DNA sequence: AGTGATTTGTTCGTATGTATG
DNA sequence: CCATACATACGAACAAATCAC
């Protein structure tokens, strides 16, 4: 039994190729080997290769052109913004290995902007947790997260022990939560951000500001993350809303 | 009757202040006049001022602090990404005057990426429409839009005549459409983009790639827009999904 | 303009493993 | 243990698009 959640061979093929693309071993615009060659390389049938490639295509990693070949599209890491966004799941979906590193933790009074986002009075104590996110050893974000101390006493310790946010929140009686709002903007990095992201100072970073709320609508977390602009891409997918509309229309 | 969609007095106040913030006449961190002064300036009651400011707060343009005052937050133009996103409405909501300028129009065979987004065969003719978007005379985006010729013959001419996209689509029997997907990424501008956005070459731009589909799910438009990174901010608001959840929970 | 080589797209058939009841 | 359903995987043949000559 391996540690990876791979069942079929096609998933293994998908992960292998995705990994090569996302780590840059296969660069954009280059052509993938022919199906026949991939069959040989992985020792599987054509169905298996085609299924893997079909998935890579739907993930936007490759572009298939009949009669020409299959080409690598863009190695940017894709970060989906839905109300159900979970950081590590987003990465696992892309066949990348997420890893979080604690950098600093402190208890501070809420600043004006944090207090507003969490709907707390100004100065109310919050845990300020600074972390760095890695995917396959490569730094991809640097985040400042804030949690209300009064509601989650001891949160910092639980986090330090390595448990995931979802898990810890569950222990405080929050089985589920949703992403209420995400703001995205661009600016130049601070020296500290550039250092942690292994980025040069003249490369722009994307800033995402997010508020999570529990199922009653009460804010439980606010965070500002900084991402290397050249290595990520955000996407908003409204497919589920479209499906709702289609289902509704078919009633008539 | 004015050309602006303002109904109540509070909307007028909101628009006026929002306009000052978004055009930079009021810069971030500066303090707004006291409610009493605003009442005098606009010749309205306190209720009206408070309602306008409450809206500005929920839009993230100002930050209200009890006992201290109201402060301008960030002058970035906010562009909301929902399945119902409409360009000019987005701007009108913020009290800005949208204006579109045609730059180039041509009929070309679909490139690989355009064909994929519109789910057309490669080489299928599409209208390629290049435009520049302005808000209050200030350039805020530069877009390349693509529409299938076969489905919308004469679209380019209708657009040239100045009609809005929604209106033209309605004439082709598409009363409504939704935004299927939006991708957001950052890169440096091309010289042409920098020129049209009145931006220097070392300032990053945000690129948004969008696919609109009709109510049957068929793609009808694809566009790639470039925005000056320092002047805009994108936001994803899941409030409506939260309301759905709250309503569902209250059933029990 | 045409032909053949290359590459992906589609469809048929068959076999095996796994979960369900 | 058996029947059923489903996912997975291999093989093969032909269709369609692209490209080089």
UniProtKB/TrEMBL annotation, chains A, B:
Q: Which InterPro entries match?
A: Bact_HTH_transcr_reg, Chorismate_lyase_/UTRA_dom_sf, CP_lyase_PhnF, Tscrpt_reg_HTH_GntR, UTRA, WH-like_DNA-bd_sf, WH_DNA-bd_sf
Keyword entries, A-Z: DNA-binding, Transcription, Transcription regulation
HTH gntR-type domain mapped to chain residues: 7-75
State the SUPFAM superfamilies in the record.
Answer: Chorismate lyase-like (SSF64288), Winged helix' DNA-binding domain (SSF46785)
Q: Does the keyword GTP-binding apply?
A: no
PANTHER family, per database record: MANNOSYL-D-GLYCERATE TRANSPORT/METABOLISM SYSTEM REPRESSOR MNGR-RELATED (PTHR44846), MANNOSYL-D-GLYCERATE TRANSPORT_METABOLISM SYSTEM REPRESSOR MNGR-RELATED (PTHR44846:SF1)
The protein here is known as: GntR family phosphonate transport system transcriptional regulator
Q: Which organism is it from?
A: Pseudochelatococcus lubricantis
Its organism's taxonomic lineage begins at: Bacteria, Pseudomonadati, Pseudomonadota, Alphaproteobacteria, Hyphomicrobiales
């Amino acid at each position: 039994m391996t540690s990876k959640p791979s069942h079929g061979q096609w998933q293994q093929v998908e992960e292998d190729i995705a990994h090569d693309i996302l780590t840059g071993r296969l660069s954009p615009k280059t052509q993938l080997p022919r199906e026949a060659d991939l069959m040989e390389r992985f020792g599987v049938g054509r169905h298996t290769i085609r299924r893997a490639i079909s998935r890579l295509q739907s993930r936007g990693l490759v572009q298939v052109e009949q009669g020409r070949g299959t080409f690598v599209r863009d190695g940017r890491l894709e970060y989906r913004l839905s109300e159900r966004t979970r950081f590590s799941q987003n990465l696992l979906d892309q066949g990348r290995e997420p890893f979080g590193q604690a950098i600093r933790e402190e208890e501070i009074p809420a600043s004006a902007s944090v207090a507003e986002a969490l709907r707390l009075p100004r100065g109310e104590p919050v845990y300020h947790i600074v972390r760095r996110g890695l995917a396959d050893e490569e730094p991809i974000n640097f985040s400042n997260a804030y949690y209300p101390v009064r509601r989650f006493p001891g949160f910092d310790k639980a986090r330090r022990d390595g448990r995931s946010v979802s898990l810890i929140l569950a222990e405080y009686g929050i089985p589920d939560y949703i992403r209420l709002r995400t703001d995205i903007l661009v600016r130049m990095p601070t020296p500290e951000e550039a250092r942690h992201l292994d980025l040069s100072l003249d490369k722009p970073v994307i800033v995402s500001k997010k508020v999570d709320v529990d199922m009653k609508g009460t804010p439980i977390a606010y965070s500002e993350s900084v991402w290397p602009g050249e290595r990520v891409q955000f996407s908003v997918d409204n497919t589920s809303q479209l499906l709702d509309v289609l289902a509704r229309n078919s009633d008539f």
